[in-house]
Amino acid sequence: AGPISSRVIMTGENSRFRVETIELAIGEGARQRKFSIEYYQTLENGPRPAVIVSPILGGTNYPIARTLSRLLAKEGIQAVLMLRSGEIIEDADFKK
Predict the structure, then answer these.
(1) What is the pLDDT of residue 21?
(2) End-to-end Cα separation, the chain, in angstroms
(3) Strands of the 33-42 sheet, one edge to the other
(4) At 64, which helix (H) or strand (E)?
C-alpha cells in the first residue's frame, strides 16, 4: 500500500519497436519496494496484444527473456519484461 511512482530511465528504438526501461517504486520509507520493467512497444498502429515476460532464472542479463521480448515486439505484440533485482514480495507480506 502507498503511493506508486515511476520514471523512464532508458529508451531505445529501431524500425519495428521502442524499448523503455521503467523504474517503479511502491510505498514509502522502509516498506518501499522498487523494481524495473522493460517495455517493448510495437510501432504498429491500432490496439495491440501484450504479454508479460517473467524470467524464472535469476541473473542480470536475461538473454532468453530479452530475445523473446524482442521477437514478440517484432511480430506486433507488446512485451513487458519484469526485471528482478530481489524479492518484490516478502514472506511477511503473505502472513497478513
Answers:
(1) 95
(2) 13
(3) 4-13, 17-26, 33-42, 78-83, 50-53
(4) helix 63-74
CA 88 to each of CA 13, 64, 65, 76: distance values in angstroms, whole numbers, following the listed order: 28, 21, 19, 29
* Predicted TM-score (pTM) of this structure: 0.78
> What are 46-95's pLDDT values in tens digits?
999 999 998 877 667 888 999 999 999 999 999 999 987 655 555 566 56
**Confidence band (pLDDT; 50, 70, 90) for 96?**
low
For cell 515486439, the residue is 73
Instruction: Please report how many Cα atoms fall inside a 13 Å half-sphere around the Cα of residue 59, on the Cβ side.
Output: 10
Q: Which three cell numbers stand for residue 3?
A: 503511493
* The pairing of beta strand 78-83 with beta strand 33-42: antiparallel
Cα–Cα distance measured from residue 85 to residue 6, given in angstroms and rounded to the nearest whole number: 16
User: Residues 6 or more apart from 55 whose CB is under 8 A from it?
Assistant: 62, 64, 65, 81, 82, 84
